[in-house]
Amino acid sequence: MTAAQHFFRKYFLSTMSILLLFFVVNVVLGCVILVTAANNSEDPHIPVKKLAGMVTETGGKITATQEFSDSLIANDAWAMLLDHGGTVVWDERMPDHLPRNYTATQIAQFSRWYLQDYPVYVWVHPAGLLVVGYPKNSIVKYSFSMSAEAVTAEIVGLAVLFAANVLLMLILFWRNTHKVEKAVKPILTGIGTIAKGKAVALPEKGELAEINAELNHAGAKLQKKDLARTEWINGISHDIRTPLSIILGYAGEIEDDGTLPGETQTQAGMIRRQAEKLRRLVSDLNLASRLEYSMQPAAKTLISPVELARQVMSDFINNGLDERFHLDFHVDTGAEKVMIEGDNALLTRMLENLIQNSIGHNPDGCNISITVGTDQTFCALKVEDTGSGVSEPLLKRLNQAEIFPGTQNEKGEAAHGMGVKLVRQIVKVHRGKIEFSNAVPHGLIVKIGFPIHNRI
Description:
By secondary structure, the protein is of the alpha+beta class. It is built from eleven helices and 15 strands. Helices cover about 50% and strands about 20% of the residues.
């Protein structure tokens, strides 16, 4: 799943979570409203059943408790007791205009609803029928009836209607999300393509055509700048090669001419070494540029890191290593059998640059050691010197890949620039990892790890 798809899936799931939360909150609020309405309703505070227990008949005389009277007063209610013939045999606070005698039909009419617009409640009493009435328009009474099948059908219908609405909402939202994803995905893909330094060609149509056009323009402009820089580097490299070869040739001849004064030979040797440094710098610059824009295909084969390191060290020693520097080589147990997949020329350049880096930044000389080690999955190459090391800020920048050509140290000298950049690029091409640290008591340690392909 791409980053764009992951973003929109996460957005869709979060929206569904919000909808679920919205539903739960509304259900809770609905319950709160119903409970609040019930608490604030004008229903009798004391049920009629309880009120009926406060009215007693003793020896044909009917009496009510003080609590009964207080309850009627508090609710502005009234009460009457009908005997079995429908005659009022007792009342309290009953309006004068209400009849004192009722037929069975009249009793049946008001027993569940209203008596002349007074909402009433009734309860069977040993002495007859207790009727409790409340002020007009204070209570709304209604009732309805239907078959059990109709109730079931309505419940099922409401559930289906609710589910259909939720499903429709989700489908519409998914459709809109998919539409936005379809429009935005090319833009995100284009940004990722530009970040990789590749050409981008987005369709300049639809709602986001203007953004696509701007990305195409930005990508083309960056490509043009990168191409111009690459061509400039290649041109400079080519133009420098010929005069540099002449300088190296004549400087070498003068340095080796025994008929010339010693001072002249020494100066010629200095010219030759500086020219070689310049040639190497130009070569590193050209190779770094090609690696950055994937113009240098890696011819990967199975390589023994031990043999690779041994060959590089032998070349340095055979080419006349300055006596101020001393090279050591160490192989950990099991490392001889390790094989890695890589480009022999690039890995050779990587080790050469690290050794040359130690030589170039320690003019007073130092010991340089290369160690080849291994664990279960990685082959470790360590290049360590006993030189001056680097400052903590510079060390941090080295590990954060912030060192670029032209970076200078406190003395104004080049500080681990192009050579280190090229090393990092080669490590990246081989899916490796690199770490810089200071040695104790002084010096620089570079640790590089490559995935092990197999063991012999």
